[in-house]
Each structure stands twice: as C-alpha cells, then as structure tokens.
C-alpha cells in the first residue's frame, strides 16, 4: 500500500481487525520512510457495478459517493459513523445481490430511501427532498402526507 504522505510504496501493517459488521478488514499502517500512520479498509467486491443515469450516461458505482450522500442526509442527526458504515455496507450488498452489473440510478436511490427511513425519518425526508426534487413547501407536505407520517406536537407554544 502506497503511503499517502510521502508516496513510499513499502508500508507496514501494524494492526488488522475486522470491522464491527464483519464486512471489511481495518488495517493500521505505518510508513518506515516518513513515519506517517494511516488506516485502510479491505472489502470483498463481488462485481464491478455500473450506474445507469437518467440522462443515459454510465458511471462506475462509487461507494464513497454513497457514504457522502448518507452523511449529508444524516448530518447533525443522532446516528453514529458505525451505523452509517453499516448502512453503506447493507446497500452495497443489496445492489450486488441483484445479480446485475448495470443498475438504474433510481434503484440505488430507492435502496437509500428505504435504508434512511429505517434509521432516521428526518434524514429520510432530507434525502427525499433532493432525490425527488422538491421545489415548494407543498412538495414536503404532499410527501409527508403520502408517506403517512403522523402530525407531531408543535415545538413551541401552548398547543
């Protein structure tokens, strides 16, 4: 593994252990040349996935992009980084288990929506607002009504 600090091609593994959900191996590494320390993750990849965009373009599936999207939706929500990693792993396993190498982007979006709904409803609505391209507050109201969300108590006031 190449050192991200100095580019030395010869780094040493100091510690290896499975991730919490067992889907990856976490390795702590050090560089004998510059003394830098860093972490790598090793995951099983069943097949190369390609995402078919709505405009017809094909792009390679990017696990990091999935993780960033979930991170944005879950920002400042009571969800741990380990839970986010488990969500990402679950979604990737679902995509790989489809048995297809080319997957429509809406399928990925639907898996993300389903995963977020099971973890945090606020993150679910945040993601939906971008994924479904909400333009007005009425879009939120219609979505929430269609999803059967209960009306909650007001945050302020005597009601």
Question: How is this structure best described in words?
Answer:
- By secondary structure, the protein is of the alpha+beta class.
- The chain has five helices and six strands; from the N terminus they run βββββααβααα.
- The chain has helices at residues 63-73, 81-97, 105-119, 121-131, 137-147, and strands at residues 12-18, 24-30, 37-43, 50-52, 58-60, 102-104.
- A three-stranded antiparallel beta sheet has the order 1-2-3, with no helix packed on it.
- A hairpin with a 5-residue loop joins strand 4 and strand 5 (58-60).
Per-chain topology:
Elements: E1 12-18, E2 24-30, E3 37-43, E4 50-52, E5 58-60, H1 63-73, H2 81-97, E6 102-104, H3 105-119, H4 121-131, H5 137-147
Parallel strand pairs: 4-6
Antiparallel strand pairs: 1-2, 2-3, 4-5
Helix pairs in contact: 1-2, 1-4, 2-3, 3-4
Query: Major β-sheet, in short?
Result: 3 strands, antiparallel
Stretches where pLDDT is under 50 for at least 5 consecutive residues are none
* Main sheet: strand order: 1-2-3
How many strand segments?
6
Decide which structural class fits the backbone: alpha+beta
Number of helices: 5
Instruction: Estimate the mean pLDDT confidence.
Output: 87
Helix content bin: 40-55%
Radius of gyration: 20 Å
* Strand residue content: 15-25%
Overall geometry comes to elongated
Q: N-to-C terminal Cα separation, in Å?
A: 60 Å
Order of helices and strands: EEEEEHHEHHH
